[in-house]
Design goal:
Layout: E1 11-16, H1 26-37, E2 48-53, H2 61-73, E3 80-84, H3 89-97, E4 102-104
Length: about 110
């Protein structure tokens, strides 16, 4: 969690997998986060962060650019963490997302 900039009181919502819009769900998660951020100001989850673990498959780089653009357009830059590719995704899930957060499988 610390290596990704997550604080002790951050609720991590993570999704693990190749970035592929319309198929893997990262875009749906980002859109949901935009709706959530204004509705949970006074809840214990107000410090939620999205952790997107993975990269695009070679040839699908446009999906990554579009997802990052969506994050910017929805003013979620302070809530979304792109980890890029990790050496051991299962370890990333256990160490980064499983501690006080929610792990979503595409």
């Amino acid at each position: 969690r610390k290596s990704w900039g997550l604080q002790e009181n951050d609720c991590a919502i993570g999704i693990l997998g190749r970035i592929k819009l319309g198929r893997k769900g990262q875009d749906v998660l980002v859109q949901a986060a935009a709706k959530l951020q204004n509705k949970i100001q006074n809840s214990k989850f107000k410090n939620f962060k999205l952790v997107i673990v993975g990269t695009t498959f070679p040839g699908n780089e446009e999906h990554g650019r579009r997802l990052r653009s969506m994050v910017t357009e929805l003013h979620l830059q302070d809530r979304v963490i792109f980890t890029g590719e990790v050496d051991d995704p299962l370890l990333a899930r256990g160490q980064g997302l499983g501690l006080g957060g929610l792990d979503l499988d595409p």
